[in-house]
From TrEMBL:
Pathway the protein takes part in: Metabolic intermediate biosynthesis; chorismate biosynthesis; chorismate from D-erythrose 4-phosphate and phosphoenolpyruvate: step 5/7
Record keywords: Amino-acid biosynthesis, Aromatic amino acid biosynthesis, ATP-binding, Chloroplast, Kinase, Magnesium, Metal-binding, Nucleotide-binding, Plastid, Transferase, Transit peptide
Locations listed in the record: Plastid, Chloroplast
Descriptive protein name: shikimate kinase
Catalytic activity: shikimate + ATP = 3-phosphoshikimate + ADP + H(+)
EC number: 2.7.1.71
Length: 303
């Protein structure tokens, strides 16, 4: 499907949007069941320490009721249950999906924040299609890389193509989109992204600089012209970019702070987090946003 849509990207009839009925009600009542299930999720995530993440099974000493849209499982005392990240992610997606009503998700964040990796995980468990905005632009430009587009056409030209891509993506439902790091600087882009749900992956600059230095700055058009060691170059430029864009990221509907996740898990560094743990937190924050959204829509007398 992605290949077909990418091929249509260059034409007005790029995609026909599917229509969905109004968003289902009852999220607040449903979320109460979800909150009652926090004990299970908290217990599960507590077992996801770095040295215990792989395929270990832990005994559950007391019965825990697990909410699920399709079925409810009761863990009997003394039973053995696999605390698996992938299973927790799947369960979280099942909690959120009924209330999305097909709405798309847009991941925003600084370069190197993991938008593509996390976005692919989220789209898979939701059964949504995944699109990388930069990749769509490259395909529309006959395979020309983003770095080459910056060199030969300039940043303004690229930003225009980026807006075109987001406009077309905004007509779609049931997609997860990884946006470019600078997509947040144009207000018109927020207009398109807010047709779905925007999620900000908030990663400390030091961690971003280490990630980018590890893979090199060649593919980062705003970084690779600097001289010096890779980490220093990346951190200095990222700091400048953050000063320019930091406030814009706060327009997102949901914020996923890697520092907060690491603190909750008891990790010393955000680099200890797995993409799956970040995706789980992203769904948690989306659910919180949807709860607040519904609260705003319901008259006080109906609460």
């Amino acid at each position: 499907m992605e290949a077909t849509i990418a091929q249509r990207f260059q034409y007005p009839s790029w995609v026909e949007s599917r229509k969905f009925e109004g968003r289902p009600h009852g999220l607040l009542r449903y979320s109460q069941r979800v909150k009652e299930d926090k004990g299970f999720r908290g217990l599960a995530l507590a077992h996801l320490q770095p040295e215990r993440r792989n395929d270990r099974r832990r005994a559950v000493s007391s019965a825990v009721s697990c909410s699920d849209n399709n079925s409810s499982a009761l863990l009997e005392a003394g039973s053995v249950y696999p605390f698996d990240e992938d299973l927790i992610l799947k369960r979280k997606a099942e909690e959120v999906k009924p209330f999305l009503n097909g709405r798309s998700m847009y991941l925003v964040g600084m370069m190197g924040s993991g938008k593509t990796t996390v976005g692919k995980l989220m789209s898979k468990v939701l059964g949504y299609s995944f699109f990388d905005c930069d990749s769509l632009i490259e395909q529309a430009m006959n395979g020309t890389s983003v770095a080459e587009i910056f060199v030969h056409h300039g940043e303004n030209f690229f930003r225009g193509k980026e807006t075109d891509a987001l406009k077309k993506l905004s007509s779609m439902y049931q997609v997860v989109v990884s946006t470019g790091g600078g997509a947040v600087i144009r207000p018109i882009n927020w207009k398109y992204m807010h047709k779905g749900i925007s999620i900000w992956l908030d990663v400390p600059l030091e961690a971003l600089a280490h990630r980018i230095a590890a893979v090199g700055t060649g593919s980062r058009p705003l970084l690779h012209d600097e001289s010096g060691d890779a980490y220093s170059v990346a951190f200095k430029r990222l700091s400048t970019i953050w000063d320019e864009r930091g406030e814009a990221y706060t327009n997102a509907n949901a914020r996923v702070s890697l520092e907060n996740i690491a603190a909750k898990r008891g990790y010393k560094d955000v680099s200890d987090l797995t993409p799956t743990e970040i995706a789980i937190e992203a769904f948690e924050q989306v659910l919180s946003f949807l709860e607040k959204e519904e609260t705003m829509e319901i008259p006080d007398g109906d609460l």
